[in-house]
Specification:
Distance between the termini: 46 Å
Number of domains: 1
Largest sheet: 4 strands, antiparallel
Radius of gyration: 18 Å
Helix content: 25-40%
Number of strands: 4
Shape: globular
Order of helices and strands: EEEEHH
Strand content: 25-35%
Length: 109
Amino acid sequence: MPKYSPKINTLYDKKHEHYLEIEEGPFKGVCFNFMKIEFLGEDTDGNGRLAFDFDLIFCPEDVILHDGNKKEFESALGDIMKDVLEEYVAEHPLDDEMTDEEDRNADTE
Protein backbone atom coordinates (compact mmCIF):
# COMPACT_ATOMS: atom_id res chain seq x y z
CA MET A 1 0.00 0.00 0.00
CA PRO A 2 1.40 3.40 -0.88
CA LYS A 3 1.99 5.92 1.86
CA TYR A 4 -0.61 8.71 1.81
CA SER A 5 -1.65 11.67 3.90
CA PRO A 6 -4.73 13.84 4.34
CA LYS A 7 -4.35 17.40 3.11
CA ILE A 8 -6.25 20.66 3.49
CA ASN A 9 -6.46 22.85 0.42
CA THR A 10 -5.66 26.48 1.13
CA LEU A 11 -4.43 27.48 -2.32
CA TYR A 12 -6.90 26.67 -5.08
CA ASP A 13 -10.37 25.39 -5.96
CA LYS A 14 -12.16 25.43 -2.61
CA LYS A 15 -14.44 22.66 -3.95
CA HIS A 16 -11.81 20.25 -2.64
CA GLU A 17 -11.01 21.55 0.81
CA HIS A 18 -9.93 18.12 2.09
CA TYR A 19 -8.30 15.39 0.05
CA LEU A 20 -5.72 12.61 0.16
CA GLU A 21 -2.28 12.73 -1.45
CA ILE A 22 -0.22 9.68 -2.38
CA GLU A 23 3.31 10.25 -1.07
CA GLU A 24 5.34 7.44 -2.66
CA GLY A 25 5.50 4.96 -5.49
CA PRO A 26 4.49 5.32 -9.11
CA PHE A 27 1.53 7.56 -8.23
CA LYS A 28 3.44 9.95 -5.97
CA GLY A 29 1.82 13.38 -5.86
CA VAL A 30 -1.61 12.27 -7.09
CA CYS A 31 -4.35 13.99 -5.08
CA PHE A 32 -7.87 12.58 -4.90
CA ASN A 33 -11.08 12.24 -2.93
CA PHE A 34 -13.21 9.18 -2.46
CA MET A 35 -16.73 9.84 -3.62
CA LYS A 36 -19.52 7.26 -3.58
CA ILE A 37 -18.64 4.11 -1.63
CA GLU A 38 -20.88 1.05 -1.86
CA PHE A 39 -20.80 -2.18 0.15
CA LEU A 40 -21.27 -5.13 -2.24
CA GLY A 41 -21.59 -7.89 0.35
CA GLU A 42 -19.08 -10.59 1.13
CA ASP A 43 -16.94 -12.70 -1.17
CA THR A 44 -16.70 -16.48 -0.81
CA ASP A 45 -14.04 -16.06 1.90
CA GLY A 46 -16.27 -13.80 4.00
CA ASN A 47 -14.33 -10.64 3.18
CA GLY A 48 -16.29 -7.46 2.55
CA ARG A 49 -16.30 -6.12 -1.00
CA LEU A 50 -16.54 -2.43 -1.81
CA ALA A 51 -17.04 -0.40 -4.95
CA PHE A 52 -16.09 3.25 -5.06
CA ASP A 53 -15.84 6.31 -7.22
CA PHE A 54 -13.08 8.85 -6.82
CA ASP A 55 -12.45 12.39 -7.92
CA LEU A 56 -8.96 13.01 -9.30
CA ILE A 57 -7.96 16.46 -8.07
CA PHE A 58 -4.36 16.70 -9.23
CA CYS A 59 -1.94 14.51 -11.17
CA PRO A 60 1.70 15.61 -11.53
CA GLU A 61 3.03 15.87 -15.07
CA ASP A 62 5.53 13.07 -14.46
CA VAL A 63 2.80 10.63 -13.33
CA ILE A 64 1.06 9.03 -16.24
CA LEU A 65 -2.34 7.46 -15.67
CA HIS A 66 -3.47 5.35 -18.60
CA ASP A 67 -5.32 2.14 -19.35
CA GLY A 68 -2.14 0.13 -18.87
CA ASN A 69 -1.83 1.01 -15.19
CA LYS A 70 -5.48 1.71 -14.39
CA LYS A 71 -5.90 -1.53 -12.40
CA GLU A 72 -2.70 -0.84 -10.44
CA PHE A 73 -3.92 2.69 -9.62
CA GLU A 74 -7.40 1.51 -8.59
CA SER A 75 -5.82 -1.24 -6.49
CA ALA A 76 -3.67 1.35 -4.70
CA LEU A 77 -6.78 3.46 -4.03
CA GLY A 78 -8.59 0.36 -2.75
CA ASP A 79 -5.73 -0.36 -0.34
CA ILE A 80 -5.85 3.24 0.88
CA MET A 81 -9.62 3.07 1.32
CA LYS A 82 -9.30 -0.14 3.33
CA ASP A 83 -6.71 1.50 5.57
CA VAL A 84 -8.86 4.62 6.07
CA LEU A 85 -11.94 2.52 6.95
CA GLU A 86 -9.99 0.26 9.33
CA GLU A 87 -8.55 3.29 11.10
CA TYR A 88 -12.01 4.86 11.41
CA VAL A 89 -13.54 1.67 12.83
CA ALA A 90 -10.67 1.32 15.31
CA GLU A 91 -11.26 4.88 16.52
CA HIS A 92 -15.08 4.58 16.57
CA PRO A 93 -15.95 1.11 17.92
CA LEU A 94 -19.56 -0.05 17.83
CA ASP A 95 -21.29 -0.43 21.17
CA ASP A 96 -22.08 -4.15 21.26
CA GLU A 97 -23.61 -3.80 24.71
CA MET A 98 -26.89 -2.21 23.56
CA THR A 99 -29.68 -3.16 25.94
CA ASP A 100 -33.22 -4.09 24.92
CA GLU A 101 -34.40 -0.75 26.34
CA GLU A 102 -31.95 1.20 24.17
CA ASP A 103 -32.98 -0.87 21.15
CA ARG A 104 -36.69 -0.09 21.72
CA ASN A 105 -35.98 3.61 22.16
CA ALA A 106 -34.19 3.69 18.81
CA ASP A 107 -37.43 2.77 17.01
CA THR A 108 -39.12 5.89 15.66
CA GLU A 109 -42.65 4.41 15.55
